[in-house]
Each structure stands twice: as structure tokens, then as C-alpha cells.
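Annotated sample (chain length 309).
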Amino acid sequence: MSLYEKAISKEAVLELHFDSDPSNPRKDEKDNKAEGWIGTMVCWHSRYTLGDEHNHEDTRDLFRSLVEEYSQAEFTIRYIGKAMRSEFRGIQPAKENGRWILANKEGIALNGHTFTTRDLAREALAIEKAEWTERAIDEELKTSQLLEIIQYYYVIKPLFLYDHSGISISTGSFVGRAHHAEWDSAQVGWIYAEKTDLMNKTAYSKGELFGKKSRRADTILRGEVEVYDTYLRGEILSYSLYEVDTEALEAYLLEENIELKELPYEDLQVLMTETDSCTGFFGVDAKTNGIADHIPKQYQHLLDLLQLA
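Output written by the structure step:
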């Protein structure tokens, strides 16, 4: 672990280190998706393995999969029918007495079939619509149209990667806010969560999650990405707290006739005894990343003394 910051007093020393081998926060010990995450991150990159494990070839393959989960839902069927200007006019009587047809836009029997009863025609229509919906999802709908259907059932955000002296990920484009982002950044995937999951797994109401004035669902997904971004940037800290042999230190300073700030750190380390340590703190601010909660009250002043090592 590389030393990041340290704080020194005559009573104690606090060291902050970058974790050289941090655990991926989105994976558990068995390399599966860790519990606690609502969103699913799907990414593609030629050099980096990013996000959650998946088998989708590209964005369109992902979108097809998400829409297929709701292929028979009312909104999906209505959307596809409107988008494709449905080839069905509906069920209507055939010219032959007492028979029924599935009429196309021109009023001609679909596939030339007729049915002896209206109920049989309804059954055939249901089958035709299911097949037509599947074909529309697989082949005919544009990727942008698939996204519109997805947004009815999911909250979904794009993921952008900035690759310049390290990597960083965000739900917003890096262009205009990072050096050379025009060349060193691109969209690499998506993060999404079902709206039903967001309602079931949080304490927020539907209005709070998805309303125009309060879109907490977006905030939740952005928060997941920010945690993962901290991991990718290597900004995960550990701390070590040491008590100093104050009596021996005072004697040494008196003998050498120097101040504490003049004492080489290597000489001070001889007088230090580790009393506590912990790792896994996301972010480089010890006052906000959780480290402060672990430091005993009598040593809280060390947080204000931290300096780059």
C-alpha cells in the first residue's frame, strides 16, 4: 500500500494509504454480482472488463433482451402497433356468410385465412400479434424505439469512460469537463434498474423516484456509478493509527535540540506502536469517507493535521 497522507502529533500518528489491491465493490467473494446494488451495469470495452458480468453482444442485443421481458405487456404492444402502423385493422366479417377474417390495412384477409367463429379469429389474432411483436423487437424496431419502450419499465442511463492517465466512469459525458475528452472518452455501456425494483427496494414513493421534480431513481443509479468510479480511479483508502512513546520522544527532541517538525519520519517510526487499522474506505477525504468515524475522540484532531506524504 502506498502512503497518501499522514498526520503527526506528539501523542499519535495517523497514516492514510491507498489500497493497492482493492476488492471490486460490484462483486462478491465468488465473483458474482454483490448484493445491495439495484442497478445493473452492462459495458463493452476492448481492453477493460467493466461493470457486471453479462452475455450481451452490443447495445441492441441488450435492448432487445430488456424489451422481451415485457413483450406481452400492454404498453409494449400498443407502442409497437403504433410505431409499425399495425398491419392489423382488426377482426371483421368475411364476404362469405358467417365467417370471420383478420383484416389487414386494405381490409383483405391476412394470409387468406377465414374462421368459422369470431372466437377462433380472436385466438388467431393473439397468436399473430405475439409473432408480429417478436419480429418487430428482433428486426424491425430501431434501437432508439427499443429504448423508448425500455424507459417505460426501467430507469436507464448511459455510461461513459474517460481513459487518460487512468480511467474514470460516469453517467454524463466527459467532453467539456476533462482534458482531451473529445479523443479519450466514449460511451461504453448502460446502467439500468427496473422501476418495480426501485420501488420495492427503497423507501421512496413512485413520485419521489420518478417524478419530474424529484427523480431520486436517477440519483440512486448515479450514486452506484460514483462508487464504482472511485474503485476504478483507485481512490480507496486504509488507515493506520499509531500511539507515540511521548516520554521517549520528548527526551529525543531535547537531546537533539530540534522541534517535532524537524524530526525525520524514519526516526519517529521507531517510537510508534500501531493501535488500530482498517481498509475499504471509498474516497480520499478522511472526514467524509468513513475513516473519521473510526478515529477515537482524543485523536480526532489528527484529521485536521493531515498532509500529503
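Annotation: The first strand starts at residue 2 and ends at 8.
Annotation: The mean pLDDT is 91.
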